[in-house]
Design brief:
- This protein has a single domain, classed as SH3 type barrels, CATH 2.30.30.
- Helices cover 0% and strands 44% of the residues.
- It has strands at residues 24-26, 32-44, 47-54, 62-66, 70-74, 79-82, 90-92.
- A hairpin with a 2-residue loop joins β2 and β3 (47-54).
């Protein structure tokens, strides 16, 4: 845009979250959020649409990362990059 505002790019690629167990999750600034504990099934019985992320090794704190918050998945390094800040990730049990 010419008035100084920027527009973030959004991906419409359909992500496959089934093979992401154990991946590290980083927020938009590259800060560590946690490690994927498991993909969570949602609207379709065979397609996960969110990830359960554990904040630390011995932590009981878990976070819910919806698929639309994921910017990229790097299969080579095992890192999932988010398009949101770590503070914006919802916590559950």
């Amino acid at each position: 845009m010419q008035d100084g505002r920027s527009v973030a790019s959004m991906s419409t690629v359909d992500l496959d979250l089934r093979g992401t167990r154990g991946f590290l999750v980083a927020d938009e600034r590259g800060r560590m959020v946690g490690r994927v504990e498991r993909p969570l099934l949602g609207t379709a019985p065979d397609r996960p649409d969110a990830l359960a992320v554990r904040a630390g090794f011995l932590s009981r704190r878990r976070m819910l990362v919806p698929a639309d918050a994921i910017a990229r998945i790097d299969q080579g390094s095992g890192v999932i990059g988010l398009r949101i800040a770590r503070e914006s990730v919802r916590r559950f049990l």
